[in-house]
């Protein structure tokens, strides 16, 4: 239910016609004005426009009518209700456009930085918010996988359920943010958001493409890698300025996609300073690692082109989160924040003081190893984390505790096994959101890709027990990574979110006595 704004049938019809989405309106007069919009019948109250979408059942529309819906919008005509319908060719696109209009296009008052990429979206978004909060006195809204922030106080922070919310929810949040005096937004945009048109019609001031590697391919997600890449590329087509990572794959494709709608002077590229660094396009910002340790990083950023120099961000920056891959995430945040007006001292503060729940959280023990809680849950991320730890602990043992999700991301099992096989000394395979599958079978499918004569591999179903055994048996100098669940405090099992203590809480208690 959203009682914050209004829209007339006439305004809706103009919008739908502009986008060639209207098939039929059953209204005899277009002067009717809606007080609410909703896509869930349970949230409908008086004079609401109800959207019928997704795995929809006609009974939901009856329910919506009963609760006060005065019209519905849908891709087909329903004859089980008396209220008129507005019939469209694509309900997801129509809902996004109508939601933005209903809330008076809040994006016009909320300059937005949007991140996409297979890995690093949340971390980069948190870095960026921490920087811009310095520049704009905490008036920066956030739409991330972990939290949604629509105002400056703690009551304005809620846990997110999707990386990118449904369009109606996104525009509701943006509207609330504007009402609460926020003046910028940092958001994560998933490939699913484009696949499902959750951000249709939305443009960003700055769009960042961090990286892409195969993930989210399979039933209910993307049929092919090409589809995954295409969906993610839409972020560039919808951004006024684009930032690309020279160290990722597909740079040429990405550059030309960006250039289709963005002038080259507004396309920026960043990359690590390497001898083998050769790209078809000039790199604007080079960075090099001055220090990357088990607890932090230090980088130097150097502008290489005239347009880059105009941002004045050359210098040395300390990054409070370990992991060499976080250096690139930090540079992305520094550049985007500077494009939004941040000064070097604000960038310096933000990068040094960002913490991201469940991302490279460090727990030290006195007599045993150092423990990391990290959200790595596919080949790309686990490989990055394990390679980093292996490099840091040439003599210590690298142990990983992980499982993999059931009913989705099936190909992650092979990736996790491969990453473990390449870089770990020891693995405890355990439970991670098994859904309707048997966690032991999932573990077996991970283990199928591990040479167990080389990597000491054990299955322990109970995640807490697996963590406890790995940490308490570790020795000084060993590194242990509890991977995959990050900040989650539940296990998805058979359609339920079963409460779970959380990796961080378990490790925090454990290390007290060690
Ligand atoms: C496959 C998919 O995209 N599903 C999303 C979609 O579901 P849906 O429209 O089919 O909704 P549904 O739950 O089947 O119900 C159908 C409709 O009936 C309505 N309803 C239902 C019950 C009722 O009593 N009355 C009623 O009106 C519902 O509100 C809904 O509008 O719309 C819902 C919100 O409107 C989303 O929560 C849901 O995301 C599912 C749960 C999901 O987890 N999606 C993942 C794959 C996802 O999007 N992940 C990405 C990250 C991955 C990436 O990086 O690509 C993300 O952005 O989070
Ligand atoms: N730039 C990067 N390259 C490779 N791995 C990364 C990078 N940044 C973060 N990671 C790894 O990926 C994990 C997830 O990071 P983060 O939450 O920032 O990414 P995300 O894109 O939001 O992920 P997801 O889509 O899975 O929510 C981290 O815990 C870390 O292990």
Explain what this protein looks like in three dimensions:
The strands form 5 sheets. Strands 11-10-9-12-8-13-14-15-16-17-18 form an 11-stranded mixed sheet, with helices on both faces. It has a 6-stranded mixed sheet with strand order 19-20-24-21-22-23, with helices on both faces. The chain starts with 6 loop residues before the first strand and ends with a helix. The protein has 16 helices and 26 strands. Adenosine-5'-triphosphate binds next to helix 4, helix 10 and helix 12.
Multimerization state: single chain
Cα distance, first to last residue?
Answer: 50 Å
Please report which band the strand proportion falls in: under 5%, 5-15%, 15-25%, 25-35%, 35-45% or over 45%: 15-25%
User: What is the count of DSSP helices, taking H or I runs of 4+ residues?
Assistant: 16
Radius of gyration: 24 Å
Structural class: alpha/beta
As laid out across the biggest beta sheet, the strand order is 11-10-9-12-8-13-14-15-16-17-18
Rounded mean pLDDT score: 94
CATH topology label of the largest domain: UDP-N-acetylmuramoyl-L-alanine:D-glutamate ligase
GO biological process, one term: peptidoglycan biosynthetic process
Cofactor: Mg(2+)
Keywords: ATP-binding, Cell cycle, Cell division, Cell shape, Cell wall biogenesis/degradation, Cytoplasm, Ligase, Magnesium, Nucleotide-binding, Peptidoglycan synthesis
Binding site for UDP-N-acetyl-alpha-D-muramoyl-L-alanyl-D-glutamate: 41, 163-164, 190, 198
């Amino acid at each position: 239910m959203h009682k914050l704004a209004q829209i007339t049938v006439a305004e809706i019809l103009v919008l739908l016609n502009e986008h060639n989405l209207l098939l039929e309106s059953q209204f005899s007069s277009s002067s009717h004005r809606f007080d609410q919009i909703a896509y869930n019948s349970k949230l409908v109250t008086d004079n609401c426009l109800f959207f019928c979408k997704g795995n929809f059942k006609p009974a939901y529309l009856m329910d919506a009518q009963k609760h006060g819906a005065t019209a519905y919008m849908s891709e087909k005509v329903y004859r089980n209700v008396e209220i008129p319908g507005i019939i469209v060719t694509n309900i997801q696109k129509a809902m996004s456009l109508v939601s933005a209009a209903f809330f008076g296009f809040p994006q016009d008052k909320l300059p937005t930085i949007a991140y996409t990429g297979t890995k690093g979206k949340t971390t980069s978004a948190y870095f960026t918010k921490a920087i811009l909060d310095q520049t704009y006195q905490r008036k920066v809204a956030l739409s991330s996988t972990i939290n949604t922030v629509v105002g400056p106080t703690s009551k304005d922070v809620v846990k997110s359920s999707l990386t990118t919310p449904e369009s109606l929810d996104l525009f509701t949040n943006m509207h609330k943010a504007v009402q609460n005096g926020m003046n910028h937004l940092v958001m994560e945009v998933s490939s699913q958001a484009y696949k499902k048109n959750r951000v249709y019609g939305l443009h960003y001031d700055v769009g960042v493409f961090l990286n892409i590697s195969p993930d989210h391919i399979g039933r209910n997600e993307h049929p092919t890698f090409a589809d995954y890449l295409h969906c993610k590329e839409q972020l560039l087509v919808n951004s006024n300025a684009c930032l690309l990572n020279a160290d990722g794959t597909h740079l040429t494709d990405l550059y030309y996609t960006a250039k289709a709608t963005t002038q080259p002077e507004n396309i920026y590229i960043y990359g690590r300073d390497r001898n083998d660094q050769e790209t078809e396009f000039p790199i604007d910002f080079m960075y090099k690692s001055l220090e990357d340790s088990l607890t932090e990083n230090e980088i130097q950023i150097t502008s290489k082109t005239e347009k880059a120099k105009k941002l004045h961000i050359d210098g040395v920056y300390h990054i409070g989160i370990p992991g060499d891959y976080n250096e690139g995430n930090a540079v992305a945040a520094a550049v985007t924040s500077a494009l939004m007006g941040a000064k070097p001292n604000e960038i310096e503060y933000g990068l040094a003081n960002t913490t991201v729940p469940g991302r490279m959280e460090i727990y030290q023990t006195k007599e045993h190893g150092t423990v990391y809680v990290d959200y790595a849950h596919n080949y790309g991320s686990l490989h990055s984390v394990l390679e980093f730890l292996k490099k840091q602990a040439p003599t210590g043992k690298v142990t990983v505790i992980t499982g993999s999700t059931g009913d989705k991301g099936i190909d992650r099992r092979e990736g996790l096994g491969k990453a473990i096989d390449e870089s770990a000394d020891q693995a405890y395979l355990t439970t991670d959101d098994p859904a309707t599958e048997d966690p032991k079978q999932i573990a077996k499918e991970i283990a199928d890709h591990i040479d167990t004569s080389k990597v000491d591999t054990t299955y322990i179903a109970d995640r807490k027990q697996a963590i406890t055994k790995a940490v308490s048996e570790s020795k000084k100098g060993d590194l242990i990574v509890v991977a995959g669940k990050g900040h989650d405090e539940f296990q998805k099992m058979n359609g339920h979110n079963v409460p779970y203590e959380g990796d961080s809480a378990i490790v925090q208690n454990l290390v007290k006595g060690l």
